Amino acid sequence: GLIMTVIVTKPEINVREKLAELDYAKVPFQKMPAGSVIQYASISTGTSISTTSTSYVDTGIDILFSPRLANSKVLVTVQSRRFNLVTADTINIICKRNDDVIIGTQQQNEQNLHFHNNTSTASNQIAIPLHYMWEDSPGSTSEVTYTLYIKVNAGTGYLADSGGVQLYVQEIAQ
To answer: Which strand (E) or helix (H) includes residue 132?
Structure first.
């Protein structure tokens, strides 16, 4: 019989060279594992926000955010150097999506910051740092606005003093 020999040549691949070509600083957000922060946004105010309202009022503190994946969770965090009750003994804070949907679980959507203040003089004000988070599931990649609302039971309450308020938003891959 007839014997034929086939010779195949292929280019050499240097694995180390190929690995060095990869850009590990830019993993596509679609490939991020569950629990990864896909994107982050923040705003900071340098002003004090006060209210005497016993109904929720818009603080004017809001942030625009466009989730990249429809199934992501969004974590909204508010932080202030302090909040001050002055003559109020209760201040409530909530966060709404698009001025309509109160975000967070049923237990966390109305954060009640309650302290009893026997004396309403300036020298007896209660002021403590504030750090609170809400979880949201917008279910869309459309732009949303997250806005903080506050109210007091009576008297005057401040969400922040001159240190202002910081609002952070993180998109978490699922």
So the answer is: strand 127-136
**How does pLDDT run along the chain (174 residues), one tens digit per residue?**
788 888 888 778 887 787 777 766 777 888 888 999 999 999 998 888 889 999 999 999 999 999 999 999 999 999 887 666 667 777 788 899 999 998 986 555 555 555 545 555 554 556 677 788 899 999 999 999 999 998 888 888 878 766 789 999 999 999
Could you tell me the pTM of the whole model? 0.77
Are 174 and 68 within 8 A, CB to CB?
no
Return the sign of the alpha-carbon dihedral for residues 76, 103, 99, 145.
positive
Q: Which 3 state secondary structure label does DSSP give 157?
A: strand
